[in-house]
């Protein structure tokens, strides 16, 4: 968008040389151009979609990760870094002593906000203990967004009585995240038991033609139970975020 | 599960030969065994997950489709057949004159229930006119489940001003289904604009390495916008169902 | 293998010019060479692996199919043609009036043998009605091989109570074939319920990233339940054949 | 974007209650909202990227195709429909007698504009006669955009002398589109001969592990010659469009 | 399932306020809910499918592996950990001095049960020496389940006389596991020689387009010999387990 | 290459204004430029690689196919069209009454040359009758190139005695083409029996995860027998051509 | 090509025994044969396609890389090594003290040429900071080829206002390289905003079904915006080279 | 095969109780059973296919590799280990001081046989220096089998004059191995230049969608030049072996 033209138009309106209607017509034809500094950008994001930028740690140097995290924390009072490294945590921890390192999901977080009342309704169901690190990324994300999360573990499809014994809890959830690797069958089973929407979260647990989680993802995509949607393999953050937004939680 | 053992246990309790506590302990150890007829099964489903069985028409003969649809309609007062054939519709239509054929999504439906108040909050956004048949399957599903759906079309990423002019409407949605084929970029853009959860619905529109919609599905799975989950290619029913369940709608 | 050399050796032995031991040593070094005519070949097969050649109909002309089937039937008193065409059946039916056409699996068969006692122990479990044609190919194969087959249908994972009500029957099986398309989750659930070996039989039922049954096949390959092995997509014949061989059935 | 807020702001400026600077700051923070009718949209596109909307015919009904094409032609004086059907052409032809049907690429076009001077510099090189339909889609696109196109055919890598005899012509091109199926080797060879950028255009010509053109596309993506970029399989339109934009041509 | 409702129902029956028949009808409609502790769960599994939980070592920490293994061993008198690490073995070995580490398949096991009579009939055939670690995982599994296993090695298809010299042994088997990497052809050859069911076990031996064992798995899936089913790449445990269940072995 | 510059150089040499050495230096720096007409091109090909251009029929119209075939036949006295249509044959047959249509491989050929002595040494081995059409394309190609071909059929790996009975014939071949679909195991077995090079020719026979012949192709690529190379799926022409070139045959 | 025959022909012409026309006819029939030494080869390349050979570092030893780089630098005064190692740089740096190591793209370069006027018109747009190393390889390549490059970063599709604020700069570009990983949506958005050709450059940033950049590449291939072509994943060099050649830049 | 039955038959013949004809008939019906020791097995292989067993080093421990190599060398006087490790070489070297380690292809070899006259006719052409290690595995294999090999390097398709200058040498070859990674185009170009059969040898050189050599392999499979067959990625041994067998070389 042509910022100078926008300014020109606004000056014409200010000078009475162009009507508000004419200006409106013209401005809608051009693309907007907010030339924002870094901090402004974060504000805008919070306002638009209710969540400060989360730091994706996988392809960043520890130094960059720590620096970006510190700026966000400084501004928002809360920060989450996913798929990070312990080295990045140590750098960040020097600046933010209250920071926490979660070994399972390899996540860094810190939160100095007042604790609001938590919003209930998010359940996270994990098929096996190997799926726990991914499940915990989902739990952490939804919790930081203000949700009370019920984590139910070790309820794989090869022993369904373990799942059915938790049916009451599942029935109370307003959204259920189902975490599974290998054949990825659990979301179909849960989807057949509950009225709430199910977010299927495939993990890379498995070997051979599990293809790093692709087999689980495909199975979930083809679920014969309605009301199941799927996020990327090991994307606990994405599942947790969507679950939180379904129950109406936002970062602030 | 051993039905005869369950009956035995219940008789023992009735006869006072076994306490309720002992019976409870034993019954929880065995898998349940409802030997239901067809109609009972539907009731159970409605109670469990809030939606009578939807008929998946793709691999059924027209005659089977029409018969199954008639039985469900007879029982529930509402029926939806997805990915069906006109021939199946004609057979069904002879029995149910009020039945409707939707050419785009190739769906059959009928609904003789009283119209309840519709639940607002579902928006469906389609990238191009070629994506409309799939979008309409989503709209139809959510509508039959009791939702008021706002359909926004022809707002592809190569002309974003068309999308931004609808931003107000998007902002009001409690869940947004985003339908796109080819590069599947639209859910990322919408996900960056709204607070509501986004259900990405890839379509098979495209050729060459669109791979029948796989390219779009993969793009959606890797969305850099949080709060995006994905359903199978052309699965308008699944997206509509999940959207309805997110806003709290059930079949009845 | 050098047939002439074998004859030479045998003549040397017959003539007393070579000892049986020397002949044995030499003959074991060369590969055997049965120059059999067509009928002999079938005998050999029946003796080796217990089943006359089954005709794979998919890439044969109707005329070739009918002719080959007639020769096998003439010789064995029983014949099975899988994945055939109605046209091939009609040609074959002219020669063999007692021949049967099974519409679902598109199979031709005829059997003029005395009915032996059937061997019990084979159960076939199908997830949905769309999976029935493939399930029936398995049932037909095992039945022709002399098994009594228990077919259990419409017990998909999204409504598990339907499955558990049949648990008694499953518990009596010595081998269970589990037929499913879409997400292919059912074998894992059944594998967790029974002691018998489970043969998972994926079907091409589904669309989008079901990838013509590949998603179901991958899920079954990654089953978290032990004792599950898998055959090719829609290969009801292979599953039925293996199940029959597990309970000790052979063609005759 | 919030249109009503934009109007509010403009009225505040018109009324002197807000300065142009303040208005500029606020307006840059919100997303624009042109609520355009169909015709306006086309104008906007021509202005933004220099080409009216081209109609992608593959997933549209003949009736829709003809109608959309007629509206664009009416407004722009030129229209191109790619991957269409003869039926769509016949419907369009009734309204636009000067319309042309190109059998090879299955394209519809019409152009009533004055002929401007053509811009030289685009060469299209096709490996075999089977690649010609795709090559012609590229030629047609670039020609309608105002380019003079030199088409060189039947110069596959298995007989390179055929290519080298056209080296002079290639040397004069400012951009070369190279069209090939099967092993897709030709762009590498051409890329080693010319200074101009090479657009590689894979075709679906081939069988077996040509995988519908994927083998050619992959080969082109891995070209050892620099200056080669690739478009989708059979995407003659995309290649022609980019070539035209490289030599500076726009639709008008 | 609603446990409290079950208790309510049972109390109603105990109090004579509900008949056993009515209770049976209601209870079959709800899913069971055994709230079992860890040890109980193991018992249940042994009873249901005849094998205590085997520990999958690949995605567990050495500490977790050793702890879980110790609890199972303590309870069952036998334990098997597959795809583990030497570090996990050392931790486990401190608690269980009689534990064994198998370098090839990287398995941990211990067995303090009385030796029952072994069940004969399982043969394991390995194509090459590189396939031995996977073959040994199958042998170990079946042996711990009470089978006498005949291991036949180095009989690849490129030298078939090696295989035919073992034909007598193969003929005696009631089930044959065939282990092969690379082109995975051996199961087809063995399937043509024996009446017993064949479990094909692909290995990741190979390079290039062996694709980590996928080529072998696909070949086995497409075997022209009937009676062949397939398990996941390198899944010696699964093959051994199924073979044992075919000959009727269970853990105890 | 710059033809005019070449002519200039040659004139300078003819005029004694440039030495042969200088000319040689310059000419080697530029790419050659034979501007040949169609007939000349064929001559050049015959001289370079010993075979006139074979017509690939799959993506040509019947009319184009017939015309191109007629021109080649007119010039060379022999022509082969692969993967063609009966319609193309009929058009060609009107011009060339001696033309032959081979239904299996869908090939057109004609040959009016004197019959030379055939070169022995090519064997073609086909696994099943379904593989015969592809095998016959190989036989036809090698025969037209002047080879005497020994076709051995129906010797699949699931009944190896059928193969070993033909071992003498295989031992006499100087090159063996092995044709197989499904699991593609036969080339490995043959490669272990003969000294001659083996050309593996995968076919698209199969279903499910045969993936249109990809499974067979992958298996052949991973053959544990040395001396095996592979051509594209169903590429009987390529295999026959290479076999003929190995025994030293050329078109003339 | 037959060098000796070329010399023979040239001598015949020099000796007046063959006319220039006859010689021309014959020379066009044979393939050229420049037997060049290493340095000559580079010259030839510069003349033909305007760029000295760039060293691809990925599969070379540090020693070989440094040596080859030194020879090119010695001859051309400029050298670029892509995807190299710091070890290779250190070896090269000993010989060429002015050499530079770029950590991000892992590139080595040196340039002792006089600085010419830079050619404007190349813009490089990167979606996220993780894409910067690849973007910088593109910038470096185009810069060394004589272009002035405008790098615009951190303008991903999930926050489009960041992109639109740079619209003026994009509008001035004659070619735009768009760098993105994950869902690869940015090129479609930019392609809808600018008239210039867009080169889409996918990166391997992502996890799960980003498949190492394949998801981004596929999305870009299917862009609904015209004028977009694509290079290999992480191929910053190729994108930079093509962009430079589009604006008319050559190495010298 | 039933060895005891064979002995029985032979004794019957020796005793005159069965005629040679009857014995021949029976023996052809059973599979042979050479129960050979290790050394005998090698002899058999040499006789059958002309090459002692080559050791595939990739999935063997250094100790096993060295031991097996030593036994073969001891027996045959020549040994080749492919894709091995330096550690294995060092162990082998202690026993066989004349052993050689080839760093490029990571091969071990030793040869104490008298040098026979080498068989000419094998050419190996490598596209780039990165392809040399694989090319050298091919050269080494063919050389050890008794061939004189002509290695031509650095003649990639992006600079074809380098290839054409070697055309004389190529024309003299009786078989040409063409080694290339990336786009794998070179075999098509060479196949268009020579009469000899071409063995295409794809390498894993490349990145991104080279997919570890799959792109090159696919391109070679789809070569438009006839007479091209393909071996596995990086399989220099297989290509060298087949080339040697084409020119009639055997190990001895």
Automatic annotation (TrEMBL), chains A, B, C, D, E, F, G, H:
Pfam families linked to this entry: AIRC
Residues in PurE domain copies: 120-252
Name of this chain's protein: Nickel pincer cofactor biosynthesis protein LarB
Superkingdom of the source species: Bacteria
One term of GO molecular function: hydrolase activity
InterPro entries associated with the record: P2CMN_synthase_LarB, PurE_dom
Natural source organism: Candidatus Lucifugimonas marina
Top-level taxonomy: Bacteria, Bacillati, Chloroflexota, Dehalococcoidia, SAR202 cluster
SUPFAM superfamilies listed in its UniProt record: N5-CAIR mutase (phosphoribosylaminoimidazole carboxylase, PurE)
GO biological process: 'de novo' IMP biosynthetic process
